[in-house]
Amino acid sequence: MYLKSAFYHISRNLFVAGAGVIFCGIYFILPSVSAETEIVPIKGYSTETGKLQLELERRFHDLPNPEELRKSHRYFTAEPHPTGSKRTMEIVNHMAEIWKANGLDEVVIRRYDALISEPVHVKVEMVSPYRYVPSLREEAYQEDPDTAHPAIRGAWAAFSASGKVTAPVIYANGGNPADYDELRKNGIDPRGKIVIVRYSSPYSYRGFKALTAEREGAAAMIVYSDPAEDGYKKGEVFPEGPWGPDSHIQRGSIAYDFIVPGDPLTPGWSSVPGAKRISIEEAASIPKIIAVPMSHKDIQPIIEKIGGPKAPESWQGGLPFEYRLGGSEVLLHIDVEMKEQIKPHFVVEGRIHGSEYPDEWVVMGNHHDAWGFGGVDATSGTAAMLEMTRAFGQLKKDGWRPKRSLVFCSWDGEEFTLTGSTEWGEQFAKELKKKVVTYINVDPAVSGPNLRVDAVGSLAPMIVELTKNITDPNGDSLYTAWRRSKENAQDTAWRSAKSSLPDAKNGGISDSALVNTRIGSGSDHTVFLNFLGRPVVDMSLDGAYGVYHSIYDNHYWMNKFGDPGFEYHRLMTQLWGTIALRLANSEILPFDFDAYAVSIQKFLTEIKSIDSLPEQLDLVVLAETLQEMQKAAQKLNRQVLHTLDQRQLDTSLISSVNEKLMQVELNWLNPDGIPGRPWFKHTLYAPRYTYAAMVLPGITEAAEQGDWETARTQADMVAQMIAKNTQLLQTITIELEKGVELNSGNKATSIPHGEK
Questions:
Q1: Are strands 357-367 and 436-446 parallel, antiparallel or unpaired?
Q2: Which residues are 452's β-sheet partners?
Q3: Which residue, among 589, 218, 283, 543, has the nearest Cα to 417 in the 3D structure?
Q4: Is 207 exposed, middle or buried (0-12, 13-18, 19+ CB in 10 A)?
Q5: What are 622-647's pLDDT values in tens digits?
Q6: Is the peptide bond before 129 cis (omega within 30 degrees of 0)?
Q7: pLDDT for position 493
Q8: 97 near 91, Cβ under 8 Å?
Q9: Which residues, given as ranges, of the chain have pLDDT below 70?
């Protein structure tokens, strides 16, 4: 569900490349995978333990098997498996059995009773200027027998309102607020009309399109996939190529989970069996507008009959005619009946207990539900998770055990409202806030070769560092392949936009631009970051992918276009597991708060572009407070390195330090949440209603609404949180200094002279 279409990922990475963090702290450059040079320290490890860790990681990298990944992928994609289906229960039991066989210490299936929305019938008919009834179905292909599977459903949007409407049709481009302003400029009133909108132009989550149409007074909304975004205008289409064929339909939810995610009837608490519930009418995340998804094959006879003013050039799509805005020429009848009911959702949870710090958890997650077969979204990630646990299980059988506990979660209901992860997070909130070191999310693991990583700023340097010791299928290090794909994407953006993106013309890109530290929503990391205040990583390997949420997103597509050799599935398994291992075994947790401070500085620069903000809001104090945090973080980085230089470290000291390091992210939470959206509690991160990242959200939303009093209050709050974390970093540094002095048995300055 997380903005997974290829065109979105590419465009987003191009224009936020400059928003990554600059790694100002001290860290070590590792040799490339093939270089035969002396191993040097890695973040969070002494030299000796670093050598052992890199050897363990090399052993782990050898274990994932492409054929095992192919076999798992085929099992999970054998049938459609939306939440609430019989097939879902089979998958849940299968995964639990495999995890037990892999040797995990503990495997539990947890149940949450949550609301889902399913179609009874969905009908669309053009009644004027002539009768036309679109099929609302996708075509089967002999090359791929799965496309004729009897369990395939037609077009439907989860949480659409039920109802019947007959009304004129207008074309509203991407269905964003500015698009309706353009319609009004052309004398077109959207009230009472059926609006046709594209999935991307520019991208925004279909739920925001629904909310916008609802606010504009539209009678119903049709969302279709234009060939300019994911069809024949992009290249060869299925079954000959990776792009969407004429009849492909992007199913999906239109729930307003950007207001509150999870079960709509238990907002803020867990939907365990017997939980109290609000009514559907009270639920803030339930839309009140009728919505239908359609293919461009089905929509073409309708759009080409729309008259009225010519649509702006930027609104013109890939269909072979001139797009117009509409009037009274086309009359549509829509009849939708949905059934809302509470159904069980199942989360599979597995653990390998830590040997030294069992109550510090590295959590990894992926969702197992899909709108159809889910070849990319999210079965590629499910197969990778299963193979990762097999590899960890093999290491465990050989006598290995991580220092910290590894927790694996297979979520249900992600596609509806991020349900399983949200309910699990709400149920165990108190424990998770205390124990989770990091949550690592993989939703679609593979649709191509290009690595995308989103992470909080404190984790970015470690991730870049470890990619230098993983081999890409092309033979280079993953780090080299990653840089190359980002440089190529940036150069493409520069040529396309003729912009002045940093270093785009010469193809250069800094390490700081590799990890995107602006984090939105739309996948299972949301509850961990925005509600629980835990550091998160979300990643995928992206490529040409035009069959999102359609029946063509299946094993045939993956086997022929996405990853024929399943080598990139192996790569994601290696990367996912390596990040977990690096965190699980580190002596001092490898967080870099200098990098985080630089990220926040970029956030401050970004919000200064909001209209009237420089005149209305003085950010000098906030910026000065942030500089103090950065100085404290830099000193801490140096002290960590010096501490790790000591041969013997006091275990109780390191435990105390790591506990405080884990507190930093938690300190960004505001218990009252963002004004108007109390579920979202992180003061640095929140999603926009489009799912795109919003940084410093309390300040940003208030400033964009012209509520300067609230903006000032929010800015003061952020400054106080920065000051609190600055003091915490200083406390950690002092604690390490004293520990070094005691360990060395003298009163000497802990950092050697000249290194301060």
A1: parallel
A2: 540
A3: 283
A4: buried
A5: 999 999 999 999 999 999 999 998 86
A6: yes
A7: 60
A8: no
A9: 1-40, 491-507, 647, 745-756
Whole-angstrom Cα distance, residue 336 to residue 320?
A: 29
Specify the residue for token string 């299925």.
238
Residues 41/47, Cβ–Cβ less than 8 Å: yes
Q: Give dist(CA 121, CA 100) in Å, integer.
A: 41
d(Cα 126, Cα 222) in Å, to the nearest integer? 13
Strands 326-352 and 163-171: antiparallel
Which tokens is 161 given? 């309102």
Could you identify the residue written with the tokens 């300019």?
Answer: 228
8 Å CB contact between 408 and 382: no
Please list, residue by residue across 488-525, b when 16 or more beta carbons sit within 10 angstroms of its beta carbon and e when fewer do: ebbbebbeeeeeebebbeeeebebbbbbbbbbbbbbbb
Residue 20 has what pLDDT?
35
What tokens does 684 get? 């640095």
- Which amino acid, residue 300? Q
Q: What are phi and psi of 524, to 5 degrees?
A: -75, -5
With beta carbons less than 8 A apart as the criterion, state whether 95 and 109 touch: no
3-class secondary structure, 313: helix
The values of phi and psi at residue 20, to 5°, are -75, 180
Instruction: Kindly list the distances between the CA atom of residue 570 and the CA atoms of 62, 277, 385, in Å, as whole numbers in the listed order.
Output: 10, 43, 10
Give the angle subtended at the CA of 237 by the CAs of 232 and 238, to the nearest 5°: 155
DSSP state of 314: G
Closest residue by Cα to residue 439 from 419, 459, 423: 459
Reduced to 3 states (helix: H, G, I; strand: E, B; else coil), residue 709 is helix
Q: Would you state the pLDDT for residue 727? A: 98
Model pTM? 0.93
**Residue 236 phi, psi (nearest 5):** -60, 140
Encoded amino acid at 539, one letter: M
- The single-letter code of the amino acid at 128 is S
Read off the amino acid at residue 283.
Answer: A
Strands (E), 471-521: none
Strands 693-695 and 404-411: unpaired
- The two three-digit tokens of residue 655, written as one number: 């435990």
Q: Centre a 10 Å sphere on the Cβ of residue 246 and count the other Cβ atoms it contains.
A: 17
| Strand duo 536-542 + 436-446: pairing | parallel
- The CA angle 210-446-481, to the nearest 5 degrees, is 120
**Which of helix, strand or coil describes residue 46?**
coil
Residues listed for the chain:
756
List phi, psi (to 5°) of 118: -130, 155
Beta-strand relationship, 106-128 and 157-158: unpaired
* Dihedral class, residue 33 (left if φ above 0, else alpha if ψ from -120 to 50, else beta): alpha
User: Residue 749 — left, alpha, or beta (φ > 0 → left; ψ -120 to 50 → alpha)?
Assistant: beta
Mind giving me the DSSP string for 85-138?
Answer: SHHHHHHHHHHHHHHHHTT-SEEEEEEEEEEEEEEEEEEEEEEESS-B-----P
Strand-strand pairing, 685-687 and 693-695? antiparallel
Segment holding 169, helix H or strand E: strand 163-171
Cα 113 to Cα 273, 370, 388, 420, 520, distances in angstroms = 6, 18, 29, 10, 27
The per-residue pLDDT for 721 is 98
Q: Which residues contact 350 (CB under 8 A, 6 or more apart)?
A: 96, 99, 104, 106, 107, 108, 389, 407, 408, 409
